[in-house]
Design brief:
The chain is α+β, with helices and mostly antiparallel strands. It is built from three helices and five strands, in the order αβββββαα. A five-stranded mixed beta sheet has the order 2-1-5-4-3, with no helix packed on it. Helix 2 packs antiparallel against helix 3 (114-123). It is flat, with a radius of gyration of 19 Å.
């Protein structure tokens, strides 16, 4: 196959996640695509939020990013991350993000509910 055809059938760019544990061990087998991140590779010190529910979320901080090109031709990015320490700042950022997501879903459904609007106002410091 020529290179132009190879480019057309190439798989999406992989992004692998490796987490550094407090003792220094590195674990992880997450294999995502660049599309997962909106087409933008996270940079060092970026925070990645994994939200299971409004009360259950985890942040990871990108420590390093490495680009690999294997002899087989396989290319991918490997992000080395660590768990972020919980903080009021991260809780507030998460509250804001989730309130806006709730509002957007309600608007798309054609019915912004009073409690969603009140939540957004509360996290914006506007009262309820």
């Amino acid at each position: 196959m020529d290179k132009a055809v190879d480019m057309l059938v190439a798989e999406p760019m992989q992004v692998r996640i490796a987490t550094v544990l407090p003792g220094g061990a590195i674990v992880g087998d997450d294999v995502l695509t660049l599309d997962y991140f909106g087409g933008v590779l996270p940079a060092e010190n970026d925070h990645l939020a994994y939200v299971s529910s409004p009360d259950d979320y985890q942040y990871k901080v990108v420590q390093k990013r490495h680009f690999f090109r294997e002899a087989s031709g396989l290319c991918y990015w490997n992000l080395v991350v660590r768990n972020a320490d919980p903080s009021h700042h991260l809780s507030t950022v998460t509250d804001h993000a989730l309130a806006l997501s709730d509002l957007r879903r309600a608007i798309r459904a054609g019915r912004p509910m009073k409690e969603i609007i009140a939540k957004r106002r509360r996290v914006n410091g506007e009262g309820g």
